[in-house]
Amino acid sequence: MLQIDSWKRVLVLLVCVAGLLLALPNAFYTRVEQSNDARAAIEVQGETAELTEAAGQWPSWMPSSLVNLGLDLRGGAHLLAEVQVADVYEARMDAMWPEIRNALRGERDTVGTIRKQPSPGDEIRIKISKPEGMARALEVVRGLGRPIQTLTGAGSNDIEVRGTGDEIVVTLSEAEKLATDDRTVRQALEIVRRRIDEVGTREPTIQRQGADRILIQVPGIGSAGELKEIIGTTAQLTFNPVVSRGTDAEARAEVGQKVIPALDQQGVFYTVEAAPVVTGEELVDAQPAFDQNGRPAVNFRFNTSGARKFGDYTRDNIGAPFAIVLDNEVISAPVIQSHIPGGSGIITGNFTVEESTNLAVLLRAGALPAGLEFLEERTIGPELGQDSIDAGKVATVVAFVAVLGFMWASYGLFGIFANVALIINVGLIFGLLSVIGGTLTLPGIAGIVLTVGMAVDANVLIFERIREELKTAKGPARAIELGYEKALSAILDANITTFITAVILFAMGSGPVRGFAITLGLGILTSVFTAIFVTRLLVVMWFERRRPKTIEV
Amino acid sequence: MRLKLVPDETSFDFFGRWKLWLGISALMVVIGFASFALQGLNFGIDFRGGTTIRTQSTQAIDVGVYRDAIAPLGLGDVTITEIFDPTFGPDENVAMIRIQAQDEAEAVSAETIAAVEAALAATTPDIEFVSVESVGPKVSGELIQTAVLAVSLAILSVLVYIWLRFEWQFAVGAVAALIHDVVLTIGVFSELQIRFDLAIIAALLTIVGYSLNDTVVVFDRVRENLRKYKKMELKDLLNLSINETLSRTLMTSLTTLLALISLYVLGGDVIRGFVFAMIWGIIVGTYSSIFVASTILLWLGVKRDWSKPTNTTGNQFADIDA
Fold it and tell me: What counts of helices (H) and strands (E) characterise chain B?
């Protein structure tokens, strides 16, 4: 009869206390946040009196995890970018052409002369003058393929080579494309992360979404446009051999060459080899510096393989100009004065100090391997977020008071038990949210308000059941016990079904909707816990003290 | 004195006019469908792409002036609405500007947004752009797919769960009630042309969960009574079960509504549509769990021999080891 083991009582109480303690920092949000920031700063840059004071605002032995506020509450920018993975195919093909050309030239006797045909960027078409040598040509080109080192693509080659008439068509194999896409997106993700970290904003979210998308959320930033500037769209650095220099944007370019404008000279265009000698990916360091004339410049250093390529090229091409190309614009096109063996060099141009610093940062962070296309952009001003928080607070308090009053009016003392449980319930939601690092969004606040309304449901079910059982006059203790027992299946079934929908929402939703799913789901867990354990404990403790002969629910 | 929504003992006859109730529901569903088919939903940018800019200034807003300022930019369909809300201060004038998607894949470009902002700033010097959101048509298409998938998946998984826990007739009744609620909610959004965005999908799923909650509680009682009163007419048994749970049904609906109404009035305009959907859904859901789910159960009939399972949570698979 109405007995709960002592250990269970202790456990329930402990869970409640722990939950409320974990929720407590959120009641002093600004203070705890400043204290946390200060602690993080002390770890990085050492103690200062100011930081220590800021850190002291919240005792270090107290839990200090806070609920993250979503962008819609804090303000900030949200971007969904699609990585243009196909860009990389073109670069790969461009890089492959000299290799193929050299290999086929060695077979001139069997395949004749070769000629690159115009083609889409992701394939190379080569015409050979002796079609009867096709078999040998295919063999040679296939020999250039490399096996793929992935789990799924094991055993296959990175290129596909087929012959049609007198043309050889080289494309990347499907397996290689998949592997390349994955690499490209990871690389882009890493670079975006590094660039945003360089700016040092608070808790940015940078996540991969699906196969080729990146979700970027940065709280506290002015606008999505600003964020886009930080990320940059391509910042692709390459060093290309210069073929000629002119003033005609429509200048005719041979296959495998392209015409690009100069960055700081209006109306000047360079025709360069499309296949770069070295790319920015092989840079290991870049620093702002000054050239011998005291003008701002950028010092750079290549890794070993980049240094070798750069060294070989400068040794073989003394006196020829080469172009330093950033994002399809020629920054400068110096003439190679001497062999540069060490792999380091300097980029000069008409830079300001700020520009050279930015360029160094961009180069250091590495170039994005492919362009980004922004599919979704959202900027939420901090005032709007604050308004939403304020409105949400008022609404939650009013909802709370209304529900508490209503429960008390309907169930008297039992209503008060339910109300205590309800308050603990909301505390637990915040505690859990803080611990799992969940994000509170505006719909999330709605989720909490909804939970306040629905959380009493389990208690209502139980109390109504107790009322019913009382009618059959079994005595109060038995009625309470039966009430809990018989209401249980309805409570579980009803909450499991709602929980299923919360899980689906979480899995399929994004951003604010996901925030709603989290609070709804947590709310279901905590409300079942508080109804089954907390109110029951309260009722039992009350019953043990008073031993009433009759009860009114 | 306790507040009681319904007397202790009720014996309303919920099925005396079941044809009428089912007819009304069917009619409402048809109207909902028709409205959806005829005028469609007022999709937000989440679902059809485009840009919304929320502006705020201390000066009174003249929509015409804004329109004239933006018109020379030639951005196609531009909607400007002023927003009024009790939570705004006296000199808070808020407008929402919606610009259609400009290109095939990408969101509206930064330059376009900057141009619009500059044009507006010329008319109203202290204008602030408190939020700017743009969604490319590529993503919005996918969002629609995901939304439809989410709602269908939710309904399907519920169907399976109820089928496992009860009997297939219960599952059909519950799902019919769910579809009824979802259709009526979409119908009201289409009829009133309230903006339908991603958050509304969340509301729809919550309605699914809530309505189900109600239905399951009634069904749970039906299951219990089926064991208790083996010879009672199904119609009387359903009536008894609904009457027994009526006080709980109304209590819960009312507490939830209280909470939601306070959010509707005080929670600000950003989530008002979302809260409206839930309020409507809870009213409809409460109705449907009684008049749709149970009526369909009555109509389909149900297995009467529930004597085998011995525990209270018995389901149809509990017989296997018996």
Answer: 10, 6
